[in-house]
Amino acid sequence: MPRKIIIDTDPGQDDAVAILLALASPELEVLALTTVAGNVPLPLTTRNARQIVELSGHQIPVYAGCDAPLRRKLVTAEYVHGKTGLDGIPLPEPSLPLQPQHAVDHIIDTLRAHPAGTITLCPLGPLTNIATAFLRAPDIIPRVAEIVLMGGAYFEVGNVTPAAEFNIYVDPEAADIVFKSGVPLVVMPLDVTHKALTSRAWVEEMRALGTPVGQAVASWTDFFERFDTAKYGSEGAPLHDPCVIAYLIEPALFHGRHINVEIETGSELTLGMTVADWWRVTGREPNAMFMGSVDREGFYRLLTERLGRL
User: Fold this and answer.
1) β-pairing, 288-294 with 254-259?
2) Looking at the predicted structure, is the pLDDT value of residue 310 above 90?
3) Known catalytic residue at 114
4) How far is residue 85's CA from residue 76's CA, in Å, rounded to a whole number?
5) Which value, to the nearest 10 degrees, does the dihedral of the CA atoms of residues 98, 74, 85, 158 take?
6) Quick one: which of 34, 135, 15, 126 has its CA closest to 73?
7) Of 146, 139, 138, which is closest to residue 183 (Cα–Cα)?
8) How many structural domains are present in the chain?
């Protein structure tokens, strides 16, 4: 039986690769894409999600969600992803219709309609939609099988402030609700994603597939690599969000610790920090499987094999 997932996303080039990886993998049944404001504003993340589904050749419904964080002004990341959020290759205007229902309502209805413990939520952006669903319908919280998310950082600290990773920083109150919800959490922080760097050889391998998906992945990677290589002096760029999907397919690629993770919502200095009790010094109850390492070769082998199927 494939694992049923909802991908909650703010595409972004790395979100796009994650979505394509999920759609290429028979182990997963993607019930829907729900979009949230994050890397770029909601109209763009929603358009990008529809373009990615069309590129994949699959038919997956797309629902637009929250256009702003719970209590803060939206912070976006065009400086990384370009003004569309998917800069790198021009894609046709999507013809896939946007579903009329709000993403939050769709998440609530889906969790209520399926047996408890059968749906995994995969947030790749800020946690606004998930937190809003939990606030509006607390009855769905125990129905969620697991949340596997990209967000946070501990040893790598921040990428948008000295202390905070972008997805958590954009809506720290939402992250706080999700991390305190009691749902089993698996977290892919920058500590892992910064070990999943692209290589020139891999990008050219994607291009050599000769398919529209291969072309798009190579061009997107070329585009957002420039930002990370300039910022970190690294060889390639981290493919953050595909780590979430790769974990669902091949969990043994990742290693981490089951620890307590709290979200800072009060401090100006460290707002949005994921305070991960890696050394278990607080005595607080563990609430998250916080990943620390990835088998990079295995990760890219999986990506190459799956993306080659589309």
Assistant:
1) antiparallel
2) no
3) no
4) 10
5) -130
6) 126
7) 146
8) 1
Q: Is the pLDDT of residue 226 over 90?
A: no
End-to-end CA distance of the chain: 21
Domain of residue 26: give its range: 3-307
**Segment holding 62, helix H or strand E:** strand 62-64
CATH number at residue 216: 3.90.245.10
3-state secondary structure of 290: strand
Q: Which two tokens stand for residue 23?
A: 């759609």
User: Is-contact 173 181, C-beta < 8 A?
Assistant: no
SS3 call for 83:
coil
Query: What pTM was estimated for this model as a whole?
Result: 0.96
Catalytic residue among 194, 240, 255, 258: 240
CB under 8 A, 24+ apart: contacts of 209-216: 209/307, 209/308, 211/308, 211/310, 212/55, 213/20, 213/55, 213/56, 213/307, 213/310, 214/307, 214/308, 215/89, 216/16, 216/55, 216/88, 216/89, 216/91
pLDDT tens for each residue of 232-258 = 777 788 889 999 999 999 999 999 999
Which pLDDT score is estimated for 236?
Answer: 80
pLDDT in tens, 134-149: 999 999 999 999 999 9
